[in-house]
Amino acid sequence: MANEVQPLNLHTKSWSVKIILAIFSILMLILVVGPLVWLAVHAFATEWKFPSYKPTGLTLEWFRKVFEVQALKEAMKSSFIISPIVVLVSAVICLPAAYASARYNYWGRRTFLIMMFSANAFPKIGLFATIATLYYFLNLMGTIVGVIIVQVLGTIIYMTWIPAAAFASVPKNLEEAARDAGASKFRVFRTITLRMAMPGILVAMVMSFIYAFDEAQGTFLVGAPNIYTMPTAMYAIVETYPIQVTAVFSILLTIPSVLLIGLARKHIIGGQLAEGFQIK
Amino acid sequence: MSTATTNQVAKESFGSKDSKLSVLGFFMALPPILVLGTFIGLPIGLAFFLSLGYTGGLNEVISIIGQDVRARDGKLFTLQAYQDVIKDPRFLGDLRTTLLVSLFATILVLFFSIGIGLIQRLRGGKLSSLLTALSLTPLFIPVVISAWALYTFYGGAGLYQTLLKSFGFDVPQITSTVVAIVIGSVWTSLPFAILMITSGFQSIPNALIEAAQDAGAGIVTIIRTVMLPLAFIPIVIVATFTSIGVMGSFTIPFFLGPNQPTMFGVEITNFFTAYNRPQQSIVMAFIVFLAASGIAVMYIWANFRSAKESGRV
Amino acid sequence: MSQQNEIGLELKGLSKVLGGRVIIDNLDLQVKKGEMVSLLGPSGCGKTTTLRMIAGFLIPDNGTVTLAGKDVTTIGPEKRPSAMVFQNYALWPHMTVFKNVAYPLKVRKVNKAEIEKRVHDVLGVVNLMHHKDSRPAQISGGEQQRVALARALVQEPDILLLDEPLSNLDAKLRVKVREDIRDLQRRLGITTVIVTHDQDEALSISDRIAVMKEGKIEQFSTPEDIYNKPATEYVANFIGSLNRYEGSYSNGQISTGSDVVGVRPEDVTFDSKNSAGAVEATVSLVVPRGHFHEVYLKAQ
Ligand SMILES: Nc1ncnc2c1ncn2[C@@H]1O[C@H](COP(=O)(O)OP(=O)(O)OP(=O)(O)O)[C@@H](O)[C@H]1O
Ligand SMILES: [Mg+2]
After folding, report:
1. Fewer beta carbons within 10 angstroms: which end of chain C, N or C?
2. Model confidence over A75-132: pLDDT tens digits?
3. In chain C, which among 78-117 make CB contacts under 8 A with chain B?
């Protein structure tokens, strides 16, 4: 849909407009990229004295240092174990529901969708505070299962809404044509419906992974002090380690998101995400 | 795509659901609702009763561990905990900070995302692609990192101060102020807003814009009477999700904001962990939830209104 | 008609390159005031592109566009005295029928009472008063088409531009609506350019037809001329069916030669094989077409 759009002839190709846009872009560039580059460069700095534009010297020492700290290594390990599990659990719970709300009319359909949204409207931090009561009772405080559940809660909205929109956009007559051609119900689902909804499911998985990988508040309240993931470890290290270590850690923490979003970039920008956030 | 076909698609995707109620569909849709019910609905329910002074049952452990827990003592309920919070001298400051930060961040996010969306839709070209790509960058960055990067950038030894100093300005730093919270909130909310709004503008067919041009409308009129109304739903979604998200945020105000007064997200955490006053922290959560629900109602109303308009209902 | 020789629209030396290809190539066209002209041609020949340059959505690389005596080549569509009916109608889904039609007047800051009156008038003309508060999604394709027409007419444009306005309608409605359009156009005397790739449509409603081929006008003449005196073989083939002979024609006879002779099927008569110029043939196929039959013959 978005690809067909042609530029319009709006007669606004004047210089003043161009200059204003250029200034706006440069400002955006500084405001967005500035902080990231500023932090990233610190990862390679021996020392940095205010108010200097450059560090005293360059080094790779800090990278080695990060991998020497046992706690940080642990945090990386648990992050990379927990996040994929969260995505899988969430997919198993949510994808059938996504298909159902796209294809079936069932009792309470609207109510379900609105409940899901309301769950998202309750402030996360308040929710994590209230969840403690239940966690104490179920003995989930400080356990991996507890952390996984807390992270799954935040992914449900992505995993249900985005694939639901993707399933809904598969034209029914394509399925009927395949049925007509003699394919079984399951085969049609696998080869037509699932195939065509795949970009949406992929976007949902990527968003869920990133959410789980970045989730800090709930993980901290539920997991600490037994379990630290990379983001919750970050809370601790900004207070105890020099800025260079935090810079290195930040770079490491950013890599998975960059890779994954790069992978699904086309679909995310192509509107799969946006489609998912409209109640139908 | 033409209007005729978009309307048709909308109609079909709605009509394609079997009109009879499906039992299978109900059971397929159940798991996420059960999970949300158990781990969000139930705790919120328990918390609600705790906030009213019900300290028994599942609330017993937390009532014993926590300090200053107000019990209803045989009455139907007590609002003592609410009074504690509201009478606390910090409350008004926190409330103001939370509401103002959410308001300003939402306005700024709408301004930037609608602006960039319009530039991309109406002008196209390399510049607009660059702008879009830039505003999507924070999507790649975990919030903790963003907060920390912003802190180091605007903080005492950051580039912001370095630059100003080398030009001879000696300005007060903006970290640990609400300004920094607003900057950070805009930063984290912008990617979602840009995705929603650009996709909203992109799905307006060229012909609808050109028809307005042909009817004699200038660019400002076209934006006001055709583009903004047609992107109404994405705009409402952005406004609601941004304000709700900012209102309940913790990481950004924690890293970038002042100690006092601060946003409820930070205060809730402080009361829960540092001060060990869970009942008061829960009361605050409900106050934020109340505000968020008001906004959520707007979102739901907007969605149903648009469904009606396009003939889907 | 007194306006017979005034010029309503003039295109001079129009050229446009799109996507690295020459789409319109040095095109000239002169439309008289009050005249209805069809742009007819196969898909992709540049009809829409030409129309968009007249309307102002595209700026030509070369050449000029003159509307009602005024050079508008570089003026934006919002300032041109033309109104367009889009291929898919382009009605705004968030406005009612009334608001859609009122929009051009509102934009021009016409006062409320007059807007009310003019919109009602024009909705009456297209027979849609009963739908004035409906939304576009709630009315049929033919009705949407009439709303689009009303929205163009309400502007009282000097030039009316229609881009395949009937292509989304079923065959029967199509004939009815095209007659309605022609009727209205005659009554209001609006200079009109209509794009179509339907030869029946072009032949039945236009004063003159411009047959296009690859960005050029191949022939520009009355429907009778286009049909009976096609300037090129391309035009002859594009309009109606044709029996093609290689040879030369004189006094009702086709004799061997190096030219090409075309004979319209309805000009073929059946006769005995001895008459002059007769060609002996056998019937190879008969296709019933309702009130007539199509008979395919094979020459021996
Ligand atoms: N923006 C563009 N960029 C590149 N090529 C274009 C563009 N717009 C049109 N074209 C090409 O110009 C040619 C003529 O297009 P145009 O839309 O004028 O055809 P048309 O005669 O209206 O055809 P149809 O009957 O199918 O509507 C086509 O080959 C088309 O691919
Ligand atoms: Mg065309």
Report:
1. C
2. 989 999 999 999 999 999 999 999 988 888 877 777 777 777 777 767 777 788 788 8
3. 78-79, 82-84, 86-94, 103-104, 107-108
ipTM: 0.81
Amino acid identity, residue C226? I
Which domains occur in chain A, in start order? Answer: 1-59 (no CATH), 70-275 (1.10.3720.10)
Cα(A222)–Cα(A247) distance, rounded to whole angstroms?
26
Distance between CA atoms of C162 and C184, rounded to whole angstroms? 14
| Options 2.130.10.10, 2.30.40.10, 1.10.3720.10, 3.50.50.60; CATH of B88-309 | 1.10.3720.10
Is the minimum distance from the CB of C43 to ligand 1 under 6 angstroms? Answer: yes
Q: How confident is the model at residue A10 (pLDDT cuts 50, 70, 90)?
A: low
Tokens describing residue C142: 């033919």
Cβ–ligand 1 contact at C23 (below 6 Å)? yes
How, if at all, do strands C293-299 and C253-263 pair? unpaired
The DSSP output letter for C66 is E
The pair of three-digit structure tokens given for residue C276, joined into one six-digit string: 């002059």
pLDDT tens, position by position, C80-112:
999 999 988 899 999 999 999 999 999 999 999
* E strand or H helix at A23: helix A15-42
> In angstroms, rounded to a whole number, what is the distance separating the alpha carbons of residues A217 and B269?
9
Of C237, C254, C275, the last residue of a domain is C237
Q: What is the mean pLDDT of residues A202-229?
A: 88
**Domain extent for C177:** 3-237
